Amino acid sequence: MGRPTLAIKSPKRLGNPRRRSTGGRSGSASSATTLGSKSSAAASGSAGVAANIRVAVRVRPENSREKAGAFKNVINVVDDKMLIFDPKEDEEVFYFQGKKQGRRDLNKKENKDQKFAFDSVFGPGSTNLEIFDGTTKDLVDTIFNGYNCSVFAYGATGAGKTFTMLGAKDCLGITFLTMQQIYQKIDSVEDKTCEIGISYLEVYNETVIDLLNPGAQLNIRENGSTTTIPGLTVHKPTGPDHILSLLSFGNGNRTQHATDANSESSRSHAVLQVFLRQKDKGAGLSGEVKMAKMSLIDLAGSEKGGVTGNKGARFREGSNINKSLLALGNCINALADGSKYIPYRNSKLTRLLKDSIGGNCRTVMIANVSPSSETFEDTFNTLKYADRAKKIKINLKKNVLNVDFHIAQYAKIVEDLRGEIVLLKGRIQELETENEVIKTGDEYQVGSSAVVRRGSDNQDMEVDSTNNEVVGSTDDTPVHTNNLEIEELQMTLNRYTGRQKDFDDMQARLAEFEEKNSAQGQQIEVLEMKNRSQQIIRNQEQESSEIASYKARI
User: Fold this and answer.
1) Which DSSP state fits 119?
2) Strand order through the sheet with 114-117
3) pLDDT-based confidence at 59, cuts 50/70/90?
4) Which of 36, 277, 392, 397 has the fewest CB atoms in 10 Å of its CB?
5) What is the DSSP letter of 409?
6) Best CA proximity match to 374, nearest among 304, 301, 300, 311
7) Where are the beta strands (DSSP E) in 9-135?
8) CB-CB contact of 179 with 200 (8 Å)
9) Mean pLDDT over each residue of the chain, to the nearest integer
10) How far is CA 239 from the centre of its chain?
11) Is the distance from CB of 59 to CB of 140 less than 8 angstroms?
């Protein structure tokens, strides 16, 4: 045997040997990770609050088809945080020649017995109100603090997403319960003025359509980190009932068709956006304005053509739904892995959800699954995507703007203050009238059996006419309560009156300033005319002198 031949290095390698550190690639990766963590920490510390997407799972009860098919239950809800997918079954003990055999039955498929932990897990007996309290109710306080919020339901077709978000007649969904909570919060806020606007759209076959004003297809425009839809109508509802009517009208325009998997299958993704604008009542001509947005999203379910039995237009709809959901799944995977490039532009759905899943937004994902083994693969895929979504990190920032209002808005501000003053005066008059009625009724009741006597401490005391003993005091609780309320209203009225006086003084100063400006402008015009006339005279004198000199030379 000859000596083994060693591999000869190329001249380039011999001339420029590669230096390798002890850390190798792991060292560079760790340094990059350290730098990334420092930058993210600095950004979160200076810009906002770091958080993760909150993920909840809802397991719906079995429907009539699943009960009739006698399918196996593949989900075991352990508690409100954990569930087991495809749990192990109690195997029959097999003995051979008096010895216990440890081998499993190869004719049966091995159970996955995979455990998943989430922020919240709701079993088949849960209601929409319980899910709202556990996932979305605290987001109302978040949006009033100036943060964007988003809630979307994810899952396969027939998993109960639309029922969770929109509900039914006898069981309201998360969307309407959220709007009810928002209006209750507005009623409890006294020192701010709140304005609400809503828009409702759908993404059908990769086209955006306004559900509240159906018509032409809409386009999506992106400007940096913000996404806008020109032509989308924004409505200002007057209350929860008005919102319910708008949602009913929009849902009537939404595309729905029956399939073999779901008799009321949604063939489009629906997005309800709620815009909240808050401003202090006494802000004056400059102040802070909070602008926040909440998105409530009902996604269409992923489906298999063989299961749904779709053909023609329904099959084309299903392929577009799966395409957009695949793009959403790729974005979730990229965000969970911390990738620098996120493929938002692969679908219009992901472009709309750009700020919901990876931007400045407090997001809640509600994964809807079926417990039946009929949808084994769909349920497993939904749980895997929900488990990966937990790793997505977001950075929350308050949307607070310092606004200097134009002088043209001064009249509206003064008019609002005058309206508030009129309401306060009316309320004070009502309470004073109520106090007079209460006092008159008490004196009438006392007059027939007792004499009212003023004591040394200026309190009214009832004295019995038979034995001249003090019976009681007429300091009634309603009168005392009304007096306290009158004092509070009077203080508020005085504050508003002082503020209106300040505005009136400001208006007087502005008028005086405008008069001075006009007078100065007139003086400037007079001076300019004098300068022009003097310049003309000088020009004429110069011309005459030049003519005279010319004649003298001639």
Assistant:
1) S
2) 75-77, 82-85, 114-117
3) very high
4) 36
5) G
6) 304
7) 49-52, 54-59, 75-77, 82-85, 94-96, 99-101, 114-117, 120-122
8) no
9) 75
10) 18
11) no
The model's pLDDT over 91-104, given as tens digits with 9 standing for 90+, comes to 666 666 777 666 65
| Tokens describing residue 428 | 């004070």
In whole angstroms, what is the distance from residue 300 CA to residue 324 CA?
10
**Which of 380, 385, 270 has its CA nearest to residue 327?**
385
Comparing CA positions, the residue from 224, 198, 175, 229 lying closest to residue 348 is 229
Q: What are the start-end ranges of the E strands in 70-124?
A: 75-77, 82-85, 94-96, 99-101, 114-117, 120-122
DSSP codes, 316-378: HHHHHHHHHHHHHHHHHHHHHHT-S---GGG-HHHHHTHHHHSSS-EEEEEEEE--BGGGHHH
Quick one: tokens of 162? Answer: 């639309």
Contact between 396 and 360 (Cβ < 8 Å): yes
Q: What is the largest CA-CA distance in the chain?
A: 153
Rounding to the nearest 10 degrees, give the CA dihedral for residues 127, 128, 129, 131: 90
- Integer-rounded Cα Rg, in Å, for the chain is 38
Taking the model in full, what pTM does it have? 0.62
Contact at 8 Å (CB) between 179 and 235?
Answer: no
pLDDT (tens digit per residue) in 122-146: 999 999 999 999 999 999 988 988 8
Share of the chain above pLDDT 90, in %: 12
